[in-house]
Structure formats: C-alpha cells, structure tokens
Write a structure and sequence with these properties.
214 residues, alpha/beta, Glutaredoxin, disordered N terminus, globular, disordered C terminus, five-stranded mixed β-sheet, two-stranded antiparallel sheet
Amino acid sequence: MAIKMLVHSVMIVFLSWGLHAPAFAEGSFPVKGGSLPGIRLPIPKDSNEKKYLGLSGDGFFKIPQIKSKGVLIKIFNLYCPICQSTVATMGEIYRQIENNPDLKGKLKLIGIGTGNSPLEIEVFKENYNVPFPIFPDEDFKIHQALGEVRIPFFIAVRIEGDRPPQIVQTHLGGITDARALSDLVVEAFGMKHEDFLTTEATSSLKDLRPGVGL
C-alpha cells in the first residue's frame, strides 16, 4: 500500500509539472478548425454505455461511429488532482444534456484516461460515480496521437458522417464550474445558452453547421 501511495504521489507531481511546462509547438496538438486524428477506443462492455454511444458488438470503434452530432472529449489522468476536480462538473453537464429533449442523443460526453489501465478506469468510474463512458489509454498511444497535450484537455468535435471529426473548440486546464463548461459547449456548437440549460423543446437542433447550433 505504501509503495502504491508513493507511486501515486510521484505521478501527481509529474502531471502537475506537465500542466505548467512550456507549450508544444503550434500545430502539434488539436486546434480549433483542425481534424481529430483517427483514434480507436474499445467498445464498452457495459450495455448502458454502449447504448449511450449508439454502438453494438465488441472490438473497437472510432469517434465518427458515435451516434451523435457532437462529442465533448476530456483527456485526463485519474491521478491528476486537477483532472479529478472536473469530474463533478462533467457529470452535471451530462445530466443537463440528458434531461434536455432537444440535446439528448445529439451531444455526447466521453473521457480518455491517458496512462491509465482498464482496471484503474473501472475503479475510478465507481469511486467518482462517473455517468458517461471513459476509456483507458494505458500505452499513451492516443495521447501521442494528440500531440501529447497537457492535461486536463477538452476537445469538442462535430461529427459529419464518416469524415474525420472537425474540432470546433479546445480548452486546456481544469473547469470546476458548470456554467464555464456549458459556455465552452455553447461557443463550440453555436448554441444559445438558454437552449443548453432548458428542459423544454425550444430549438430544432437539426445539424452542427457553424452558427446554426446542434
């Protein structure tokens, strides 16, 4: 137990340093207006998560296969304290979306735990009662494909058929306020804030063209 706690402490120090390290060269990590790399994730075994993403079967999937018009992706490490502080905020946004008939099914949330094993992810989900799917990136391949971004890092993408998802917004750093996170989503997808927070059907949400909304 003592060894495990020591390892966790070392990782926290390392990750905290990474949050303040010099920025990567411009263009080496996801930027607004670019395309998301073709990362692969394991299809969830949990039937509710599989249904939430609109997937079936086993194996792997790519982001464009998610049955949604937009996806907010959180890149994190479960031992990063700043990353941990955003869990409750993400959960609140998830519930706002799922309780809004105009948004449910059109905007999905997922997390990717860089450097984390499947077992660590499962324990984290249970301990923090995470309501949306999160996936392991134990070998750092996804993190590398994303330019080894500092964490936590948020990426909002628009899904348009089989084409590479278009990045419509990014954010580096923790967000512990639900209003701040909803502002990011609103700006990313050209929505109105009242549409995001309301539980009444107030907009058509037909597609994700810039300035049109979901």
